[in-house]
What we know:
The protein is an alpha/beta fold and 227 residues long. The chain has a single domain, classed as P-loop containing nucleotide triphosphate hydrolases (Rossmann fold). Helices cover 35% and strands 26% of the residues. The protein has helices at residues 49-56, 79-89, 105-115, 120-133, 149-161, 179-196, 207-211, and strands at 7-16, 23-33, 38-42, 64-69, 72-73, 90-93, 167-171, 199-203, 215-220, 223-226. The strands form two sheets. A six-stranded mixed beta sheet has the order 6-7-8-3-9-10, with helices on both faces. A four-stranded antiparallel beta sheet has the order 2-1-4-5, covered by helices on one side. α3 crosses α4, α3 (105-115) packs parallel to α5 and α4 (120-133) packs across α5. The longest helix has 18 residues, at 179-196. It is globular and about 50 Å long.
Amino acid sequence: MANHPILLAEHVRKxxxxxxxxxxxxxxxxxxxxxxxxxxIIGASGSGKSTLMHLLxxxxxADGGSVQVCGRDxxxxxxxxxxxxxxxxxxxxxxxxxLLMEFSALDNVAMPLRIRRVAAAPARDAAALMLQRMGLxxxxxxxxxxxxxxxxQRVAIxxxxxxxxxxxxxxxxxxxxxxxAAEVALDMLLDVAQAQxxxxxxxxxxxAVAARCQRRLRLAGGVLHEV
Length: 227
């Protein structure tokens, strides 16, 4: 797998046909990302940033072109194989944490490992270590409702990183936080991802967040432009 980029998107196209006229959201997206690189994608609301993230993570299917993660094309895999490949290689962080409210922080973070069929004890040990790295060592057994917004988002980041994915896709990860909590969450995300050698793509409206990444691209007119 070392011979492949972490992510390779070539001539990706996506259109929606729900209205009277088809809308081509993505026209010719080309993108390469190698291990350890950080990239910010910025763009106006409705420009297709979230659509692009779904395509890059194999959650939606492109109408043309190809998306490869760690050398495998999403379109060439069955849904079951896609799910296994995502669990092995991709971590997702969203604007809203999507934590399971009935579970503790520890069990939320252990969940991707349990899905991978890691035994309960080592899965929880890995989750505890990741939460400690997120500054949440005293919050392991708290449920999401007992945590602040910033803490909940750090639990979500820990869940995305605990599998040591090669690719982290973060869609407005600080968009629901105040400036102080956002800075802490972003520091944790980038520091731990860098330590693990993960490639990171962050979709953001925030220029300060984008400035923290090595590369910045703007999505406009269905294509990516260097900033």
